[in-house]
Structures are given as C-alpha cells and as structure tokens.
Design a protein that fits this description.
By secondary structure, the protein is α/β, with parallel strands linked by helices. It folds into three domains: about 200 residues, Alpha-D-Glucose-1,6-Bisphosphate, subunit A, domain 3 (Alpha-D-Glucose-1,6-Bisphosphate, Chain A, domain 3, 3-Layer(aba) Sandwich); about 220 residues, Alpha-D-Glucose-1,6-Bisphosphate, subunit A, domain 3 (Alpha-D-Glucose-1,6-Bisphosphate, Chain A, domain 3), CATH 3.40.120.10; about 120 residues, TATA-Binding Protein, CATH 3.30.310.50. About 40% of the residues lie in helices and about 20% in strands. The protein has 17 helices and 21 strands. It has a six-stranded mixed sheet with strand order 1-5-4-2-3-6, sandwiched between helices. Strands 16-21-20-19-18-17 form a six-stranded antiparallel sheet. The protein has a five-stranded mixed sheet with strand order 8-7-9-10-11. Helix 4 packs across helix 7. The mean pLDDT is about 95.
Length: about 550
C-alpha cells in the first residue's frame, strides 16, 4: 500500500495539469482515509502501452490513463527516436480531433518537439486524421502525430504516430520509440519550446482539392444523407461533395457539430447497432438514394442503401468490393490489398483485372506498407483509394468515390446493390459476418485461444476444416500475430483473433455461395445467411465462448 501511495504522490507532484493533479490528490486522500484502493491501483496498474497503434486509453490521472504526463513523455520519446535515426532538426506535423483534451495534448506535443530542436507544425483546427497523413508528405515532415481515439467511447483519447512516408509506425519502430519513452525522467525536466507554427487553411484546401480531383466534376443527380457522428468530418465532406458537383447532402442535424460527448450514440462507431439509426430515418423521410457516414475522426466510411425491407447498412466488405470495382474500372494499376480478416473477394476482383493482390495483417499500418499499393481496405470500414496522396485509410475520399459510383449507377437506372449483384454473379456471393465477444477478464480471451489450439475443430457449422493456419507462427508473407485461420470447404473461412484495441475476442466469418442465374442473387443471399449462422454457432462452441 505504501509503495502505491508513494508512486501516486510522486506522479501528482510531476503533473503539470491542475485538473488531473487535483483528481489524483482526491483519490489519494480517499485511500489515505481508509477508502477503497481499487481506483488508485487501476490507475497505477502499469503504463499505457505504446505500440503500433500509438497510445489509446481512458482520460484521467496516472500512468494507466491518457493525460498530459503520459503525452509529454510520449512526445519526448518520439523526439529522441527521431533524433537518433537521423532526423534531428526536422519537422513534425501535429493534428487533433474534437475529443476532450485533444487540443491540449497537441499543444504539449508541439512544445516538446520545439524544445527538442524540431520544427513543429500544428493543423489549424480539429480536422480529420487523413488530413494529418496528407500533411506529412505535403510538408516533407520527418513524422506526424494525430491526437485522436477514433471511434472509441467519449471517455477515451489517443495518440497516433506516423513516420515520414505518411504511414503509421510498424515494428520495430514502435518498440524503439517505447524504449525511449520509458527512459524519459520527470516531466518537469523535459525541455519545452514554443507551441509550434499553426498552419493556414491552404493546407486543408490542398487536401480537399486533391480529394475532389479523384472524380470528374460536373452536376450529379444523387440524394445523399450524411452524418459525421459528432465528429470532424462534416465541413470537409460537404466541401468535397460540392466541389465534385453534388448537391449539398442532408445532414443529420443532431449529429452535425463536433461534440466530444457523442450524445446521440451509445458508441460513436458507425458499425455499432443504432449508430446510424438517425441517418437512415432521415433518408427514409427524404426518399434518399444513399446514406454515408464517417466515424468521429473521419478516417472510416460507412454506407447504407434502401431495399425492399427498408434501409440496411452495407458491410465493410461490401463497400470494399464496390470501391475496388470503381478503382479497377478507372484503370489504376498496382497492388490491391486487404487485411487477412477482410473478404477473399478482393483477390478475385484483382485477378480478373490482371492486377496483383496482397494480404496483410490486421491494421492499416500494414496495408499502407504494401509495395506499389493501388488500393487497400480492411473490413472495419477503412479504405485507401488514393495512396499516392494519403497513405492511410481516408473516410473522406472513400465517401466521395462511393457517392460518385452511386451517381453513375443511378444515371443508368441502377444502384450499388445492382453492382454488388453483378460481382456476385461473376465471382460467387462472398458473404461475411463477425462475432465479437467482449470480456471483462482478458484471461478469458487467452483461455479461448488456448482451447482452440489444444483441440482444433475438424468441422465448423457443418463444413469440414481443410487446413488450420496458426498465425502466431508467421509465414513468408505475414509476420507472426496471435490468431488462427480455418480454411473450410467451398471457400469458407473463419479467423479468430484477440482485438488489438478493445477487450474483445473477434471471429471473422466468410462463406462463398455460387449464384445460379436462374435462382438469382437473392437466393444465394438467403443460403449464405444460414451458412454464416452455422459457422457462428460452430466457432462459439469450439472456443467455449
């Protein structure tokens, strides 16, 4: 107990922020008075781990929270890494979203960078993550930092690091930066300089012009409903659509303005049930053609379409196939890549167009590293349609390209669903789904993975398992990662892995159903639903979850 209190007192003494210092002092006083020590113990149960996703965690005082002490040390460690790898005196650009304390963490980062002898550029206001990724290469920076927790709950914030190629860090850079963070002493001893140079709107204009240039301009007939989900995508998206010749979208009024508390959604992620309900209700009232959405930092894009039974969300793999179709139709040569948990359909689309295909580990940091990348996506709504300018997922450019495809289809009396049907007729219906099991004890995830390795299933959902790949062993194509891939008959597949950002075990399911031209795609979809349900039940039983 005394060691915990001593550590907490030392942390409070080093904390430059009045609010978190007072917060921690109150918790210390409660424990000293004989109160519950669990809150204090949790705050000091290790340190937020700096990895390939940078930092992400709950706001609050202590080393196991996101706060100014943790951010200052992270910035100092990054500065030391850059100096040690030949970038001393270079430039670092810093962006931030509209979450609680994002602007504060951005300013701290800029002051640490200038204090270490770097030039620090700061984006002019809360802006989408892809603008930060664009700015790194546009300005010739050695690195970039984006303060965002993407689509995490309101209580969280995060710290995403990019290097000079404009893509997120991957091993071994993450471990090397983490080692330098661990070597940082007292925050009071970290040199600080001026808060950097705030960039002008010209940088934002350059990004928006680049995105708008991905499609031909001109009037387009498409009734769009849009929601930024209380994030920073609103103004950039509306400007890009206008520049490309679209009428202004109908925006969900209650979700239009940035709000770090995300009051209308339980979880600010367009994948989550209910998050898109307001947008789809507005689309129903307006008789819209398409619903599009971004997550709060606008690096992801979601879509919904009307159907015979009302509006439905397109799955991430469906949007991925549509965008691949559009990029391939434009004649763009290069490698088409997706993560291993995304649909195998992209490989067939690329092969049919005579283009190379690659699979990567989960996470856009891996997709962006693919040589000669022409297009990349991951099923979690992340799409890179213009890697020459943004070497990361970009929800703004993906949204524009999807709207452009929908408008072209409408001009021919068709819809995005018709394009998906054409793809299914040519390559089989690739239906995907996901089973996510959230846990309170991370040991449950390790136990489930251990059970699957100890007793590999020979069939799942009535489909025989033809091969099992233990992804922790790595291969010539993929670095090792904790996961298992089951290859089943008829092209079906199940992948099981622990989430890298949340306390979840994730299972990714795919079935491939041939389409009989006489029965049509709808019959194949009905068959796919049954097969996916069987797979879901099969992997739950095998993993004991």
């Amino acid at each position: 107990m005394s060691d915990l209190l001593d550590a907490a007192r030392a942390w409070a003494a080093d904390d430059p922020d009045d609010q978190t210092r007072a917060e921690l002092e109150a918790v210390i006083a409660e424990v000293e008075a004989g109160g519950d020590r669990s809150d204090l113990a949790d705050r000091f149960d290790g340190t937020l781990e700096f990895g390939t996703a940078g930092l992400r965690g709950e706001l609050g005082a202590g080393p196991n929270r996101m706060n100014r002490v943790v951010v200052t040390r992270a910035a100092a460690g990054l500065a030391a890494y850059l100096a040690d790898t030949g970038h001393r005196g270079g430039a670092v650009v810093i962006g931030y979203d509209a979450r609680h304390n994002s602007d504060v963490f951005a300013r701290d980062t800029a002051e640490v960078m200038t204090g270490a002898g770097f030039t620090a550029y700061v984006l002019p206001r809360p802006l989408p993550t892809p603008i930060l990724a664009f700015a790194i290469r546009e300005l010739g920076c050695a690195a970039g930092v984006m303060v965002t927790a993407s689509h995490n709950p309101p209580r969280d914030n995060g710290y995403k690091v990019y290097l000079g190629d404009g893509s997120q860090i991957v091993p071994p850079a993450d471990a090397e930066i983490a080692a330098r963070i661990a070597a940082v002493g007292a925050v009071a001893d970290v040199p600080r300089g001026r808060p950097g140079k705030v960039l002008q709107e010209e940088l934002v204009d350059s990004y928006l012009d680049t995105v708008a240039g991905l499609v031909e301009d001109g009037p387009r007939d498409l009734e769009i409903v849009y929601t930024p989900l209380h994030g920073v995508g609103g103004v950039p998206v509306e400007r890009v659509l206008e520049a490309a010749g679209f009428d202004a979208p109908s925006v969900v009024a209650r979700q239009e303005q940035p709000d770090p508390d995300f009051p209308t959604v339980a979880f600010p992620n367009p994948e989550e049930p209910g998050a898109m309900d307001l947008a789809m209700a507005l689309a129903e009232r307006n008789g819209a053609d398409l619903v599009v959405a971004n997550d709060p930092d606008a690096d992801r894009c979601a879509a919904a379409v009307p159907g015979p039974h009302g509006w439905r969300m397109l799955r991430g793999d469906e949007v991925g196939a549509l965008l691949a179709y559009a990029v391939l139709a434009s004649g763009k040569h290069g490698t088409y890549a997706c993560s291993i948990v995304s649909s195998s359909l992209l490989g067939k689309l690329a092969a049919a167009a005579g283009q190379p295909y690659a699979e990567t580990l989960t996470g856009f940091k891996w997709i962006s590293k693919v040589d000669g990348l022409a297009y990349g996506y991951e099923e979690a709504l992340g799409y890179c349609v213009d890697p020459d300018n943004v070497k990361d997922k970009d929800g703004v450019s993906a949204l524009l390209l999807l709207c452009d495809l929908a408008a072209d289809a409408k001009a021919q009396g068709r819809t995005l669903v018709d394009i998906l049907d054409d793809i299914a007729l040519a390559h089989g219906l690739h239906a995907t789904d996901q089973l996510s099991v959230r846990v309170t004890d991370l040991g449950e995830i390790a136990a489930a993975m251990a059970r699957l390795r100890a007793t590999p299933p020979t069939e799942l959902g009535g489909l025989a398992v033809e091969a099992v790949d233990d992804l922790s062993l790595g291969s010539a194509a993929l670095p090792p990662t904790d996961g298992l891939r089951y290859r089943l008959v008829d092209g079906a597949r199940v992948i099981v892995r622990p989430s890298g950002t949340e306390p979840k075990l994730k299972c990714y399911l795919e079935v491939v159903v041939p389409v009989d031209p006489e029965d049509g795609v709808d019959a194949a979809r009905i068959a796919a639903v049954g097969r996916l349900d069987a797979l879901r039940n099969g992997i739950k039983a095998a993993a004991g979850i």
